[in-house]
């Protein structure tokens, strides 16, 4: 998590505001992503490309539709979240969505490594994606989200932050 005010998670008993996601959802997705990327690395370019293609589709869904509507987010929302404590932290959905786009870029690079018979590209791209997913899954540190926030700070933002949530109880 970032220490900046614009990205600081909202804590306490809250309901998400527009454009907010439960921070546990992307972290859950990162755990699934990590397992799939480890499998792709262990299997190697072939048949690991099949596992990587599945993960590439998940990254694409997250980048295009948002993390709440990609397969792991849907599973988290419908199966996992009802069985755990209510959410106490939310974050702006734009940062994890950007992170999915970064993951998508690395996954496409890995696929290109297989298509163009460059196994080193496959291994390096998948390993970079795994490091990022692992940091989020294990430590709650979203590398792609931090890149998004740095870019937002460096290049400015034409869109105001959606860091508004309402306190309850």
TrEMBL record:
Known InterPro entries for this protein? DUF4395
For this UniProt record, the keywords arranged alphabetically read as follows: Membrane, Transmembrane, Transmembrane helix
Q: DUF4395 domain location, by residue? A: 21-153
- On whether Transmembrane helix is a keyword of this UniProt record, the answer is yes
Q: Where are the transmembrane segments?
A: 25-43, 98-116, 122-150
Name of a matching Pfam family: DUF4395
Q: What is this protein called?
A: Integral membrane protein
Q: Which organism does this record belong to?
A: Propionibacterium freudenreichii
């Amino acid at each position: 998590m970032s220490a900046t005010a614009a990205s600081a998670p909202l804590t306490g008993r809250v309901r998400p505001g527009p454009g907010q996601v439960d921070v546990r959802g992307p972290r859950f997705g990162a755990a699934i992503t990590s397992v799939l990327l480890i499998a792709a690395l262990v299997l190697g370019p072939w048949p690991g490309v099949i596992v990587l293609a599945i993960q590439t589709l998940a990254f694409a869904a997250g980048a295009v539709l948002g993390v709440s509507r990609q397969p792991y987010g849907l599973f988290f929302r419908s199966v996992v979240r009802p069985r755990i404590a209510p959410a106490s932290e939310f974050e702006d959905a734009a940062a994890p969505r950007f992170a999915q786009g970064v993951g998508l870029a690395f996954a496409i690079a890995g696929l290109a490594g297989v298509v163009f018979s460059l196994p080193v590209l496959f291994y390096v791209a998948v390993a970079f994606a795994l490091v990022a997913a692992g940091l989020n899954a294990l430590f709650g540190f979203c590398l792609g989200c931090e890149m998004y926030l740095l870019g937002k700070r460096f290049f400015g933002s034409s869109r105001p932050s959606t860091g508004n949530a309402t306190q309850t109880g």
